[in-house]
Amino acid sequence: MDVDQYMQELGIAARAASHVVAASPPAVRNRSLLAMHDALDGARAALAQANAVDMEQGRAKALDAPLLDRLELTPARIDAMLEGLRQVAALPDPVGSISEMRSMESGIQVGRMRVPLGVIGIIYESRPNVTVEAASLCLKSGNAAILRGGSECLASNTAIAQCLTQGLQVAGLPAAAVQVVAVADRAAVGQLITMPQYVDVIIPRGGKGLIERISRDAKVPVIKHLDGVCHVYIDDGADDDMAVSIAFNAKTQRYGTCNTMETLLIAASKVAEILPRLAQAYAEAGVELRGCSAARQVLPDIKVASELDWREEYLAPILAVRVVDGLDQAIEHINTYSSQHTDSIVTRDHGRALRFLREVDSSSVMVNASTRLADGFEYGLGAEIGISTDKLHARGPVGLEGLTTQKFVVFGEGQLRT
After folding, report:
1. What is the pTM of this model?
2. What's the confidence (pLDDT) of residue 104?
């Protein structure tokens, strides 16, 4: 197969389909999502068989255990995919809503309307359930999607794609509204990210290497984040029990996520009271601490934190700890080392909390809350396609609204410019 020609054909079909989807009534898109649900539910045996092929090949290629775990489509994960489709179908439709209407001196009324982005390319690794998540969010928001999963889950994604196509056809939408790239050749990714005439935005979901490559080579705008170097700062004005609870949850609730705390900052006045309590809790959870010299004066047995530790996304039970003079140094540290993902302050001082919110330059900034709450579902978005640390278009968890843009709409009664 000529990969370049194949990808061009996908792009042409997606562009044509995007106009049909954007013009479709919300009820039609919801009907399609529910029909996808029924098709997937009826194809459980086929999905399991296809996934078994991927799992067997993965073991033959000696994929590591975490990758194999993400690759597996268990009955519970199929159930979760089905529930996700029901939830997305039930979400409010952002497309076509008009806001900020105001009357001007000329007599015209000016507002903004939410409209789809157009064609969204999504590139991801391992997890075949992402195929359903991405398809449902793109379709619900009135977009067409080109989905390129990892080569390790090609058989699973192909089986899922057949169900998605059935759902589109039931609702009378074009099959090209959701297309799954059917080739494992990596050249397909290179083509997808360099077709601005057909693709409006790229969303990569995967490891840092994948996202760096796409960010470097893409000719299409990219919505992405590279790292999740997240901080919790325990301020002089913090409640001790709350600080311990938040700092423990932010690190240990789950280790391998982008919103897990990787560096703990503690105001010097709080170290003697809080750090030993946290150290005991972390030790019981198996978390390794790496500290600055001031932290090691309180906990002499912990490892020395190097300059590299302040920039590290461990995704593991390891935590860097630094003692700071106060709020100014905490903000300086975060704005120097943070990946602009999620950072939190624990304090009862309202003025310091507001300063932290204003001055920390991250996509999610929190007061008295665990960084693990930085999530589309927790934010009331219903679902998310990923997290963005970019400053243009979408920032933070990207839900349905993040997959749309706005255009100005004007209502007049014959007004002319004089």
Report:
1. 0.90
2. 97
Q: Is the dihedral of CA 386, 388, 393, 397 positive or negative?
A: positive
In the numeric block, which tokens belong to residue 105?
Answer: 């001196």
pLDDT score, position 70: 87
**Using alpha carbons only, how large is the chain's radius of gyration in Å?**
24
pLDDT of residue 235: 98
Token pair listed for 6: 């194949």
What is the model's pLDDT at position 350? Answer: 97
Q: Rounded to an integer, what distance in angstroms lies between the CA atom of residue 285 and that of residue 260?
A: 15
pLDDT at res. 323: 98
Q: H helices within 304-385, ranges in order?
A: 327-337, 350-359
**Strand 119-124 relative to strand 144-148, pairing:** parallel
Positive or negative: CA dihedral 183, 185, 190, 194: negative
In the DSSP assignment, the letter for residue 142 is T
What confidence score (pLDDT) does residue 217 get?
A: 96
Edge-to-edge strand order for the sheet containing 109-116? 98-103, 109-116, 404-411
pLDDT of residue 67: 85
Integer Cα distance of 26 and 23 in angstroms: 9
In the predicted model, residues of the chain with pLDDT beneath 70 are: none
Half-sphere exposure of 106 (CA within 13 A, CB side): 12
DSSP type of residue 370: -
Long-range contacts of 91-98 (CB under 8 A, 24+ apart): 91/140, 91/382, 91/383, 91/400, 93/26, 93/29, 93/140, 93/400, 94/141, 94/400, 94/401, 94/404, 95/22, 95/26, 95/141, 95/142, 95/404, 98/409
* Spatial separation of the C-alpha atoms in residues 247 and 370, rounded to whole Å: 7
